C-alpha cells in the first residue's frame, strides 16, 4: 500500500475542493501531486518552475476573450500568485482559470491593477476558499538583510514581490509590478526573478544581483514580501 505525505494529502484535498466548487460533484480520480522543494542548508535555494505570462491572458480562443482582454496589462499580481501556486504544485487549474477567478477576489481593476492591501486580502480570501490548509505570510521588506530574509522564506515558498520597473530589468516605463522570486544564491548575491510579464528576449526566470531587485522594491514603497505556507 502506497502512502503520501501530509503535504501531498493537503494538496489533494485542496484540488478536490476546487473541482467540487467548479463542477458541483466529486472527481472520479485524484492525482497524487509531486513535491518539489529546495534543500535547506546550501548556499543556493531555488524552485525549478517555468512562468505563466500575463501577455498570454486570456487565450485567444477563449469564449470570453473580449471580456477579459482589457485586463491583460493589469494582472501581474494575479499572475505572480498563479506562478507561486505552480511552483509549489498546489493547483491543477489552468492559468486562465486562476486569473479569472482571482480578478474579483483581488479587486483587480483596468487602469489600476491590484493595490497591495487588496492583494493581501485577496490572497487570504482565495486560500480560505480553495486552499484552506495554507495561509499567507507577509514579511517586512529589509534591504540590508534582503538575501538573508529571502533565503529563510524560500525554504518554504517562493516569494512574491511588488517593485517598480525600470531598464535594469528590461522595462522602458516605470510602474508598480508584482513578480516572483523563485531562488537565491547567497554566495554570489543573486536572486532568481520570475517575471509575470515575460519580456521577449529576456530569459524568464533570470538571475539578477540581489540589490537590483531590492532597490526596485524600495523605490516602490518597500512593500512586504508575500509567501504561502502550510498551517
UniProtKB/TrEMBL annotation:
Domain Peptidase C39-like: 71-196
Organism expressing this protein natively: Methanobrevibacter curvatus
A family per Pfam: PMBR
Residues annotated as signal peptide: none
InterPro entries on file: Papain-like_cys_pep_sf (IPR038765), Peptidase_C39-like (IPR039564), Pseudomurein-binding_repeat (IPR018975)
Protein name (record): Peptidase C39-like domain-containing protein
Amino acid at each position: 500500500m502506497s502512502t503520501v505525505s501530509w503535504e501531498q494529502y493537503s494538496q489533494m484535498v485542496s484540488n478536490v475542493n476546487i473541482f467540487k466548487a467548479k463542477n458541483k460533484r466529486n472527481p472520479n480520480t485524484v492525482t497524487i501531486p509531486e513535491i518539489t522543494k529546495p534543500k535547506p542548508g546550501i548556499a543556493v535555494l531555488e524552485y525549478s518552475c517555468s512562468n505563466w505570462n500575463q501577455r498570454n491572458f486570456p487565450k485567444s480562443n477563449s469564449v470570453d476573450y473580449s471580456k477579459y482582454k482589457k485586463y491583460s496589462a493589469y494582472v501581474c499580481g494575479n499572475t505572480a500568485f498563479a506562478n507561486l501556486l505552480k511552483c509549489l504544485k498546489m493547483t491543477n487549474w489552468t492559468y486562465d482559470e486562476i486569473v479569472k477567478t482571482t480578478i474579483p477576489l483581488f479587486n483587480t481593476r483596468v487602469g489600476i491593477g491590484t493595490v497591495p492591501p487588496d492583494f493581501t486580502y485577496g490572497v487570504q480570501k482565495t486560500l480560505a476558499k480553495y486552499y484552506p490548509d495554507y495561509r499567507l505570510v507577509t514579511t517586512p521588506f529589509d534591504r540590508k538583510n534582503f538575501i538573508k530574509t529571502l533565503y529563510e522564506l524560500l525554504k518554504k515558498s517562493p516569494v512574491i514581490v511588488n517593485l517598480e520597473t525600470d531598464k535594469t530589468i528590461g522595462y522602458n516605463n516605470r510602474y508598480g509590478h508584482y513578480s516572483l522570486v523563485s531562488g537565491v544564491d547567497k554566495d554570489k548575491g543573486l536572486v532568481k526573478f520570475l517575471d509575470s510579464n515575460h519580456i521577449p528576449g529576456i530569459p524568464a526566470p533570470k538571475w539578477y544581483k540581489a540589490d537590483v531587485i531590492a532597490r526596485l522594491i524600495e523605490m516602490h514603497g518597500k512593500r512586504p514580501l508575500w509567501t504561502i505556507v502550510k498551517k
